[in-house]
Amino acid sequence: MKRVGFYPGTFDPAHNGHLDLIRRASKLVDRLVIGVAINSGKGPLFTLEERVEILEHETADVAEAKVEVLPYVGLTVTAAREVGATLILRGLRAVADYEFEFQITAMNQQLDRNIETVFLMADPRHQATASHLVKEIVTLGGDVSPFVTPWIHERLLAKVAARTS
Fold it and tell me: What is the second-level CATH architecture of the domain 4-127?
């Protein structure tokens, strides 16, 4: 039986912490589906299509598992079930993440007891990295190159330049 994992997020933008977790999670499953959430309430910098493209580009070299990037709307547990996942993979950076994720996990267990949530601790190099902070720093003219790949960095700079022109 193939192990299928589902890693959900908005990934706006995807950063080195996300990419590290994807590479580590790919060692735990045979197929890893990265679910890109449609969440207009967060005011995304990148369109859904751009976020999918960025993740496809940045994960093209992951060899440990088959990696797919799919947009989804609605409940994460429903999207996980639809792709045949038995694991929802989540990253934890700090205690605040744990409290939030604990509530979501408890609710997901009530919705589908056949899907487990597995938490991976963020690598210490990425524990402070958050997409909303990357967006804020780049929008205010700061250097985000330590937090994203060079290709994503170029995309961020182009996106911010287009918004300010």
Answer: 3-Layer(aba) Sandwich (3.40)
